[in-house]
């Protein structure tokens, strides 16, 4: 099973993670967050205009018991909404999908326009469409259910322009002690702060309590309970954030140390730039592959939704000008935020792929190399 070590996630998941608390059922809340991570991961892979959700794959990737996802919800939202339909969205997984297609989870959803200006949305839903399929396996007569979905365009744009890189393995480990929400907060803060040369960030204790169940009438006890979690984060993130540590300090007019500082080692600026370039180049290659696939679908009347057919189309000489112009379109769309710009780069890319004969080698053309 594939390990999701470094995927791009819509930053709203970190900024607005506490908005999920409006969903009272714990299991539903957990599935909703996992689905957003899954959609982010699948978007980097799916080229066919829609995403595919296989419950078996989803349960393995995010460590769910498959039977728990299939259990019926006592009050599924499609019923409380009074939806008159022959299709019942009443399992835990289907109820979560229905919520994402009908309900604004985030109080305020943010994104970026084509000029990288931050814009906001109200009443925003993440899924434009969701379909359930139950094709029969002719060989064994079993029904294997799966779902196809279409993401809202703002969510897709955010995965290119307003994203956060996260390690799903760390997310799932933190989830074991209900610490996944604060993990996303930590990674968002760290990624933003280190780019600005900062080596610390702080939260007041009343802000931290929102993330953890540590309520007590004495702040001293709250701090003790929080310290238990903080030690786990230091161990979990020692390879993700070099030199990470937490320390309580007094700030302002506080009589006692009620402000938590997260600190880390200052990263070499050259390393930061290399990391940034690597991430942007992978973003560029993912975007280029998607745009080229769209061209393939539009220009080849015999196009099929198979990667090998797409790759064969890419190497045809008559497509040279289209591939080069598509390359430059992606450069302009990303406002030259990657280093993959200029006509000479576009021509070099075409010359590289035009002589490739295997799917594996073509796949490698769309994978950035860390320099």
Largest beta-sheet details: 3 strands, antiparallel
Question: Shape from CA axes?
Answer: globular
Spans of at least 5 consecutive residues with low confidence: none
* SS-derived structural category: alpha+beta
Portion of residues within helices = 40-55%
The first-to-last residue Cα distance is: 27 Å
**Strand order across the biggest sheet?**
2-6-5
Approximate strand percentage: 5-15%
- According to DSSP, the number of beta strands is 10
Structural Rg: 23 Å
Number of helices: 16
The arrangement of helices and strands along the chain is EHHEHHHHEEEEHEHHEHHEEHHHHH
Mean pLDDT: 87
Report a brief summary of the structure:
The chain has 371 residues and is an alpha+beta fold. It has helices at 12-15, 26-43, 55-61, 66-70, 77-80, 92-102, 153-161, 168-175, 180-195, 205-208, 219-236, 269-299, 307-314, 320-333, 343-353, 359-365, and strands at residues 7-10, 51-53, 109-112, 118-121, 127-133, 146-151, 163-166, 200-204, 245-249, 259-263.
Q: How would you describe what is shown here?
A:
The protein is an alpha+beta fold and 371 residues long. It has helices at 12-15, 26-43, 55-61, 66-70, 77-80, 92-102, 153-161, 168-175, 180-195, 205-208, 219-236, 269-299, 307-314, 320-333, 343-353, 359-365, and strands at 7-10, 51-53, 109-112, 118-121, 127-133, 146-151, 163-166, 200-204, 245-249, 259-263. The strands form four sheets. Strands 2-6-5 form a three-stranded antiparallel β-sheet. A hairpin with a 5-residue loop joins β3 and β4 (118-121). The longest helix has 31 residues, at 269-299. It is globular, with a radius of gyration of 23 Å. The two termini are 27 Å apart. 26% of the residues are buried. The mean pLDDT is 87.
């Amino acid at each position: 099973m594939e390990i999701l070590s470094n995927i791009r996630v819509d930053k709203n998941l970190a900024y607005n993670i506490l908005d999920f608390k409006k969903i009272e059922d714990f299991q539903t809340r957990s599935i909703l967050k996992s689905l957003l991570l899954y959609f982010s991961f699948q978007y980097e892979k799916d080229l066919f205009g829609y995403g595919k959700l296989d419950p078996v794959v989803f349960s393995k990737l995010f460590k769910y018991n498959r039977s728990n996802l299939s259990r019926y919800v006592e009050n599924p939202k499609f019923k409380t909404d009074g939806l008159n339909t022959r299709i019942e969205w009443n399992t835990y997984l289907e109820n979560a999908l229905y919520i994402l297609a009908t309900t604004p989870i985030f109080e305020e959803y943010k994104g970026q326009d084509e000029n990288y200006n931050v814009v906001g949305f109200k009443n925003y839903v993440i899924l434009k469409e969701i379909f359930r399929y139950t094709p029969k396996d002719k060989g064994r007569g079993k029904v294997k259910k799966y779902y196809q979905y279409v993401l809202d365009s703002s969510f897709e744009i955010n995965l290119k322009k307003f994203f956060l890189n996260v390690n799903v393995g760390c997310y799932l480990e933190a989830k074991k002690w209900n610490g996944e929400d604060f993990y996303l907060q930590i990674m968002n803060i760290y990624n933003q702060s280190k780019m600005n040369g900062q080596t610390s960030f702080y939260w007041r204790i009343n802000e931290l309590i929102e993330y953890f169940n540590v309520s007590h009438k004495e702040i001293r006890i709250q701090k003790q309970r929080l310290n238990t979690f903080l030690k786990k984060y230091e161990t979990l993130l020692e390879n993700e954030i070099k030199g990470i540590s937490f320390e309580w300090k007094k700030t302002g007019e506080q009589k006692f140390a009620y402000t938590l500082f997260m600190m880390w080692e200052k990263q070499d600026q050259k390393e930061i730039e290399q990391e940034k370039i690597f991430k942007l180049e992978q973003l560029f290659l993912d975007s280029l592959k998607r745009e080229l696939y769209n061209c393939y679908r539009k220009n080849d009347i015999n196009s099929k939704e198979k990667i090998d057919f797409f790759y064969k189309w890419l190497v045809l000489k008559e497509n040279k000008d289209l591939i080069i112009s598509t390359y430059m379109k992606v450069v302009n769309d990303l406002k030259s935020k990657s280093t993959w710009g200029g006509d000479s780069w576009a021509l070099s890319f075409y010359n590289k792929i035009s002589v490739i004969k295997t799917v594996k080698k073509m796949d490698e053309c769309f994978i950035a190399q860390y320099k």
